[in-house]
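Lab notebook, bench 4. Still working through the backlog of constructs that have no structural model yet. Next entry is a single chain of 275 residues. Request: give me the structure tokens for it.
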Amino acid sequence: MPSASQPGTQTQPRRFVFTKLDRGWRRFATGLSFFLFGTVGLFLGVVYFPALRLFVQQTERRANIARRTIAWTFRLFVGIMRGLRLLDYELLGFAKLNRKGLVVIANHPSLIDTVFLLGFVQNSIAVVDDGLFRNSFTGAPLRAAGFIRNDAGATVLDDCVAALDAGLNVVIFPEGTRTPRHGTVKLKRGVANIAIRAERNLTPIIIQCSPRTLMKGEKWWQIPERPPHYTFAVGDDIAVHAFSSHDESPALAVRRLTAYLEQYFTTQSPAHAIS
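Model written out:
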């Protein structure tokens, strides 16, 4: 006679098949999502933004339209991925962002962190890699929206201050790239330099993603065992005056603030280092 444990073991093949089908579907849907994102991006870069530049002559009005277009496109992309059951997310404390002229900083565990923040942080631009400005498809949208070129030149600080004075929220990832798989948070000094020299407080966002996905060095088809859940939690402002003193050089304050931010992101996001 069959043992009592046999009926339970008969479900294992079904569970295995379901898991294979689920991951197969999510891999296909992920590819479809990125294809749609690329197609829309191509249309915007080749057709929409050149036409916007041609028909809207006022620079400020054109930039506002460009920023709203980018934000709407990014929210649409996130909505499609959520609708396809590829991810879920929650936004915590975003009422703190209902201000103007913020320097918004965040850790960077995933490829699509930028999409989330520029989609949901109102009236925002970002400091982006110089290579994206030289790209034939992304250069036009970035220039039209007034994004800031991170070319390590002296103009980055001036451009950030001008954007903040105009009431824009500037999004910066202090790591400069996605966090490595081992999870060690290592920040560049650029954001601290901007904060100290421009005397601007920092508004941090802690991003957590479980299970981690779209990490540095990971291909889009390497999907996790279950749909990831993203959490974006806005923290209290970090006052920069505590890190500077009138009787010392700004460089010392920049190093001190950078060290504090590394510790902050490491301690505030323990899941950041979970692979």
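Notes after review: Strands lie at 88-92, 103-106, 124-129, 148-150, 169-172, 202-210, 229-234. The domain at 6-273 is CATH 3.40.1130 (Glycerol-3-phosphate (1)-acyltransferase). Flag for follow-up if needed.
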